[in-house]
Hints:
The protein has about 150 residues and is mainly alpha-helical. It is built from 5 helices and no strands. It has helices spanning about 15-45, 60-70, 75-95, 95-115, 120-140.
Amino acid sequence: MTTTLQSRTIPGTVPRASARASGVRRFVGGFYLVMGGINAGIVAADPETYRTFADGSYWPFVADAWRSVVMAHPTAWILALAAGEVALGVLLLRGGPAAKVGWVGVIAFHVLLMTFGFGFWLWSVPALLLLVPAARADWPALSGPVAAASPSAT
């Protein structure tokens, strides 16, 4: 005799692992909204704050590109970066398929941040150790459409 173990959930409830991943997604989404605002505020106060941002890069082309491209017009570029952070936060908070794009974006953001030098590895590696498993755990729950605010009639 063979027995199949089936997961049993109550309709309308979210499995515990999925709920935990969803909570991490909301936290990361909110964090990105806040950090986008902080970066916009910093560049509005003093764009020169970002002048030395890429000085620690191991690759000269990263530091050179930062100085010649970004610091040529720091307000515009840093505001674009801040808008990207806000967009990633909104995608994660939106949920559903949009959150998949948000997860890919925040993971890519941290990987690219590592090109700016060892100091950024101290932040990015622990962040990726949280983000990648959280994204993997949350991914299956993001396949369907975003749930409506009101309960549907059946």
